[in-house]
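Budget justification aside, the reviewers requested a transparent look at the raw inputs and outputs of the sequence design task funded under Objective 1. We therefore reproduce one unedited record. The lines immediately below are the structure tokens for a 138-residue chain.
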């Protein structure tokens, strides 16, 4: 088998006195495998998160810092992660809560969040959203 570069058909090989492209000759000796993309397997427990919004008296910067510290301490005590923040002028904290590591939040976690927010003095109001799929739920 010899190849002739420069042909207008690409690299040409002479195989059994017939002209074929180099890729075709390779296909005969090495047929393609039926390659498929790996199937996505559903995890046993898809991680879920909740959106949280906490309202408090606007404009008081020391109160905002104390509120944020108290909220983060509560989140960490439950082995969760919080992504978000707030603004002093708006008088609110907002973001999402997700379980640290494997697993997902539960209704028990929502109940604990509601109870903590109700008994906290600086909270004027709050909203805790439904569970959402952490991978595809935005």
């Amino acid at each position: 088998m010899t190849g002739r570069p420069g042909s207008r058909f690409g690299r040409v090989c002479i195989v059994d006195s017939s002209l074929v492209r180099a890729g075709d000759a390779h296909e005969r000796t090495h047929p393609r495998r039926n390659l498929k993309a790996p199937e996505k397997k559903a995890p046993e427990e898809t991680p879920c998160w909740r959106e949280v919004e906490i309202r408090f008296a606007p404009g008081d910067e020391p109160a905002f810092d104390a509120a944020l510290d108290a909220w983060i301490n509560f989140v960490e005590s439950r082995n969760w992660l919080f992504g978000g923040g707030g603004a002093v002028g708006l008088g609110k904290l907002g973001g999402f809560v997700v379980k640290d590591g494997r697993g997902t939040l539960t209704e028990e976690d929502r109940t604990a969040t509601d109870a903590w927010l109700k008994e906290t003095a600086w909270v004027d109001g709050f909203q805790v959203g439904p569970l959402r799929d952490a991978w595809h739920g935005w």
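The two ends are 57 Å apart (CA to CA). The beta strands are 3-4, 12-15, 18-21, 48-55, 80-87, 92-99, 125-128, 132-133. Computational costs for records of this kind are itemized in the attached budget.
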